[in-house]
Amino acid sequence: MPLDPHIADFLAASSQADAPPPATLAEMRAATEAGLLQLQGEMETNGGYKDYVATADDGHGIALRVYSPAGLNAEVARPAMLFAHGGGWCLGSLALYDRPSQALCWVHEQAPRLGIDSRRLAVGGDSAGGNLAAATALLARDRGGPRIEHQLLLYPALSRDMATESYRAFAEGYYLTRDAMTFCWHSYLGERRHPYAEPLHAASLCGLPPATILSCEYDPLRDEAERYALRLEEAGVTVRCERLPGMVHACIHMSGLTPAARRLFGLARS
């Protein structure tokens, strides 16, 4: 399918912009947040949230925001998903993959206080967050952590190899670039390799929870997401893998740019 015309126009306009690139991490974060908020447009609200801080094993705080849909019976425990947002892990260390696992344990322990059914926990994330969600599922399996019922991986980054056809085809000009991913992986790992940090290269995917994996047609990460789905199937894991036609990386933020981006939410819900 051709690239979504609204996204194509946005990419063409972006390529003509004269603004200098952000020079510092703080500037990068501010520019990213402002840009994504503009792409999102008006978002529906349904419910509220409360912020918490879980303490990691190394003493650092893990910021968590617990969203609760409106109209729920507070007396009934509900399922929950621990969702890790994207953003290229910037900037972090190899220990970063361990934080969501510790956050999952915190949610499991605090389930009664949060009104959550600890028997119905899922993990999810987009891009680098999808990487962390997949790593959390692996860690929970290997360390006997809380049982995970499902994993939702949205255009996840799963390997730093960058040797796929989609990396060759969409290295430049399709929102996420090969150079950007090189920067993100190096910021995260340096020159190191680790199967938890690169779930596609885990020795075994047996015993992992069922997965929903959504890839984007014009995304450098497309092929590794679909390869991971295939490896999960080969390991006997129930998988639903869908490719979003005409979409680019980070389309979860583009519903204000093109109505077609909203399809992601429907697929994720189902």
TrEMBL record:
Keywords from the named record: Hydrolase
Protein name: Alpha/beta hydrolase
Entry-linked Pfam families: Abhydrolase_3
InterPro entries registered for this protein in UniProt: AB_hydrolase_3, AB_hydrolase_fold, GDXG_lipolytic_enzyme
Species: Raoultella terrigena
Gene Ontology MF annotations: hydrolase activity
Domain Alpha/beta hydrolase fold-3: 100-252
Lineage, opening ranks: Bacteria, Pseudomonadati, Pseudomonadota, Gammaproteobacteria, Enterobacterales
Coiled-coil parts of chain: none
